TrEMBL record, chain B:
<dbReference type="Pfam" id="PF05114">
    <property type="entry name" value="MbnB_TglH_ChrH"/>
</dbReference>
<protein>
    <submittedName>
        <fullName>DUF692 domain-containing protein</fullName>
    </submittedName>
</protein>
<dbReference type="InterPro" id="IPR036237">
    <property type="entry name" value="Xyl_isomerase-like_sf"/>
</dbReference>
<dbReference type="InterPro" id="IPR007801">
    <property type="entry name" value="MbnB/TglH/ChrH"/>
</dbReference>
């Protein structure tokens, strides 16, 4: 995966204005897919080296791996020295992390408000490849449980929208430790990042590009140069020899003598093992080959386009990256079974289409079988190399494809397109809730109201919500009256003028039913400000800064009361905050939780 | 035909639970001796509705999985295994089962039971996984033969040897899907009766019955059509030689209730006639 792909994936998740819990659930799998990918590691190393060069050679300020200023998130690589553990600290913004190398010890704490002490609640070790997340507030301490080798982790951090608040995004409980001190001299974190990428590059199956290692060598201190040189011995002997000479010349007599011994040993070892290492890299184990075979066959039967290509051009071309051992298993399987694999792919495709249409009963009722087939075919034909065998994902992709480009099967602006988006949103929210569960209502040290976990807002081209209600009634009618009811609905829908409608899809934390609420842009902004860290007194200024007329806290409280009544807002818990809370206006009324009323759409 | 002892432990005939016909199952519960529930549908306890809870409490229960993916050339998914074992612990079925197949490879879930290449290494790997499951649960675990529409290019043994080897190495019971056997015999042109003669029938604990359809000369397992006569004949043949503890009729689409409950009755009649079911 490319670094830019991960960045885009995170941006997409952030742009959906999800709750913190939903953002981390959207971001986590992308981080998991990226961080062990060789291309991603190499691009991280390139980007880190570029930034270090700007900082060390041009005096630019220090920057982590990536900062997305407009969307308030950043991504950083952290190097954990053997045995090092940081002090407990509290995150007040969401974050997603993954272990790229070795292991990470994670200790979770709860703060006892009365005694002002931290109580450990859970401790576990995350292995390479594992990802984790935190939804604020979360108190933890992280460390490297390995006392002999370093660990590397990748972190995506949300930054507070309000720059002044960012100092409170992470709060350290050890008064004697201020990790920010480390960043006062930009050269220190920059060089640390070079060390970090060298750890990652060393773990790759093949040597890192010599040019990259040579650049790191140029930027590094003696320690970094030594490691870059060691890796250059594997990557490019000529460059390694040149760098070795320069390194030796820069060392004192004692270090130079030790280095020259190492130099000779590494060169001898490289000469003895390089050919063996090359052949070993090309050949996976039998189990890996079997796994790759299964993966390739699975992709083929899930994607008839890929299968057709594989049958016509041969497995060796379609799966050019597959190691020879796996290809030797796959090629005869495809060759001998092309017809049967096509039948199976076709059956699975039909089954998936049926499942998708069953999951979208209102849309399916409005589409003729021929229209449904055409839309499905168009959607599948556009899927050259992706597979969407999971029904919920297929529903989402199918609806998105139809809405984006319905093709000749549907007229532009056909109400069924709005219905598809509506149904798909319902499905997505309930699926998300089922997969990830719901967070508990907000708890200390939150200061103000917070959105429930699963929510999403969508714009529609026409006032769709009352139409959906009548459509549902029509679909539920007995077979003999159903068709006339659907025809009447079509007439009714055609008469509704195009008019923007903003809907909030959410699952109230008290129950499992997905609900829909018609809201205004101002209410949407109000909801997005309900992140638990703004007190009610902060909200009027926030709305005003976004161009809305000044409201009183009382008026906003009334709106929030109505939202709480609908189950959109979790109850506000006002407690003694543990760390430097913003002042709260004592005159400002609190929002009270009211049990959710009956479902409405 | 060798005379067998009547099996005093046979439970009878049941249905696989489907939400679509839950009300009808409740209405005609007396016609069923047991119920099979897809374990993957009850992994999250809060998603189990009250009617199904009642059914699982009131009827002898067996659980059946479709996504353990025993055949994937990778370790078992620990989260899925833990959730399955939790469901087994919670609902205390008589046994639980899954297929000799792979359905998930990494993040890719095929949504279909795919045939594993029949190699010695895969046979040993699957048997080891079954032993791992058995060691983690006091409830018996069975494996089921699947329908396969293609064979890999480099099969090291036939299906019979593959299945027998797994059963023997794992020392586990067999859920014999009679329809799958019929379909495979048709599609891959072998004699199902010869297959049964070689199969370790002493390990048969449960039988599955279902229907299929023909597509481009291939017989397809649909779980949505009437059970064919050759399948009924095979069932009779199996019941005369094995001592299954239960037969489950599988129907996942086209819920023709008359056909479903007729099939239950016909299967029970065969059990009685062959003395597999205690009178």
């Amino acid at each position: 995966m490319a670094l830019t792909t991960l960045i885009q994936g995170i941006n997409d998740a952030v742009d959906r204005h999800l709750s913190p819990a939903d953002v981390v659930h959207a971001v986590r799998p992308i981080v998991g897919s990226a961080m062990l990918d060789e291309r991603f590691v190499l691009e991280c190393a390139e980007a880190t080296t570029d930034k270090a060069a700007r900082c060390l050679l041009e005096g630019a300020p220090y920057e982590p791996l990536h900062i997305e200023h407009g969307r308030c998130w950043r991504m950083a690589l952290f190097l954990w020295d053997p045995g090092f553990t940081n002090a407990p600290h509290q995150h007040n913004t969401w974050s997603v992390s993954g272990v790229m190398h070795n292991r990470l010890d994670v200790a979770l704490y709860q703060r006892d408000a009365a005694s002002q002490t931290l109580n450990p609640t859970q401790r576990f070790v995350a292995a390479r490849g594992q990802t984790g997340f935190l939804v604020p507030p979360c108190i933890h301490a992280l460390g490297n449980p390995d006392t002999t080798a370093p660990s590397v982790t990748l972190h995506v951090f949300n930054d507070s929208e309000d720059r002044a608040q960012r100092a409170n995004d992470t709060l350290w409980f050890d008064d004697e430790v201020n990790p920010l001190d480390f960043y006062r001299d930009p050269a220190r974190p920059s060089r640390r990042n070079l060390q970090t990428v060298l750890v990652l590059l060393k773990a790759l199956a093949r040597p890192a590009p010599a040019g990259l290692l040579a650049r790191i060598f140029e930027l590094g201190d003696a320690r970094i140069r030594l490691e870059a040189y060691k890796q250059l011995v594997r990557a490019d002997l000529a460059t390694a020899l040149a760098c070795g000479d320069r390194l030796a010349a820069s060392l004192g007599p004692q270090d130079r003598s030790r280095f020259m011994q190492l130099h000779q040993r590494l060169l001898a070892a490289h000469a003895a093992t390089a050919p063996v290492a090359d052949s070993a890299r090309a050949e996976p184990s039998d189990e890996q080959a079997e796994y790759l075979l299964q993966q390739a066959v699975a992709r083929l039967v899930c994607n008839s386009g890929l299968l057709a290509r594989c049958v016509s051009e041969g497995a060796a071309v379609t799966f050019g990256d597959l190691p020879a051992k796996a290809l030797a298993l796959l090629a005869p399987t495809v060759q001998r079974n092309s017809r049967r694999l096509k039948i199976l792919a076709s059956i699975l495709d039909q089954r998936l289409m049926d499942q998708v249409l069953r999951a979208l009963p209102l849309s399916a009722a409005l589409l003729s079988p021929e229209q449904a087939r055409q839309l499905w075919r168009r959607y599948k034909d556009a899927q050259v190399d992706t597979t969407t065998p999971v029904v919920a994902e297929a529903c989402r992709a199918f609806c998105a494809a139809c809405v984006a480009e319905p093709g000749p099967a549907l007229a532009e602006g056909d109400p069924v397109l709005d219905v598809m988006r509506y149904e798909e949103a319902l499905l997505r929210i309930s699926d998300r809730a089922a997969r990830h569960g719901k967070s508990a209502p907000v708890s200390p040290p939150y200061l103000g109201p917070a959105l429930v976990t699963n929510s999403e807002t969508l714009h529609f081209k026409r006032a769709i919500s009352p139409l959906v209600r009548t459509l549902r009634a029509a679909v539920q009618q007995p077979a003999q009256t159903r068709e006339p009811a659907l025809a009447a609905w079509r007439d009714q829908a055609a008469a509704v003028p195009a008019q923007d409608e903003l809907l909030l899809f959410y699952e109230a934390w008290q129950d499992t039913q997905v609900r829909v609420l018609r809201i205004t842009a101002r209410t949407l902004l109000l909801l997005s400000a309900c992140d638990g860290r703004r007190s009610l007194a902060d909200l009027p200024d926030h709305l005003r800064s976004q161009g809305y007329a000044l409201s009183t806290p009382q008026a906003l409280a009334a709106t929030l009361d109505r939202l709480a009544e609908a189950g959109v807002i979790a109850p506000l818990v006002l407690s003694t905050p543990s760390v430097s809370p913003p002042e709260q206006d004592p005159a400002c009324p609190s929002v009270t939780a009211i049990p959710t009323a009956s479902a409405s759409d | 035909m060798p005379k067998r002892d009547c099996n005093p432990h046979c439970l009878g005939v049941g249905l696989n639970h489907r939400h679509e016909i839950e009300a009808e199952i409740i209405d005609r519960l007396d016609e069923l001796d047991l119920l099979e529930v897809i374990s993957d549908n009850i992994l999250q306890d809060e998603q189990v509705g009250e009617p199904l809870r009642r059914l699982m409490r009131d009827k002898p229960l067996v659980l059946h999985g479709v996504s353990t993916s025993l055949g994937t050339a990778a370790p078992l998914d620990p989260d899925h295994l833990a959730a399955t074992l939790q469901a087994v612990e919670r609902w205390q079925p008589l046994w639980f089962s899954d297929h000799i197949a792979f359905s998930r490879v990494g993040e890719l879930d095929v949504g279909h039971l795919m045939p594993v290449r029949r190699s010695l290494a895969n046979q040993q790997r699957i048997a080891a996984k079954i032993r791992q499951i058995q060691q983690a649960s006091a409830t018996p675990f069975l494996v089921e033969n699947i329908t396969y529409y293609f064979e890999h290019g480099d099969e090291e043994m036939d299906e019979l040897s593959f299945v027998n080897g797994i059963l023997q190495q794992a020392d586990c019971g067999l859920l014999l899907d009679v329809n799958n056997l019929h379909i495979n015999a048709q599609n891959h042109r072998f004699d199902p009766y010869e297959y049964l003669a070689g199969l370790d029938l002493g390990r048969v604990v449960e039988l599955h019955l279902a229907g299929g359809f023909v597509r481009d000369e291939l017989l397809i397992d649909s779980h949505g059509h009437r059970i064919g006569e050759p399948v009924w004949e095979l069932l009779r043949h199996v019941c005369e030689r094995a001592q299954p503890r239960a037969i489950i009729i599988e129907r996942d689409i086209n819920f023709d209730l008359a056909d479903i409950f007729d099939s239950v009755a016909r299967a029970r009649e065969i059990l009685l006639q062959t003395e597999a079911l205690a009178a």
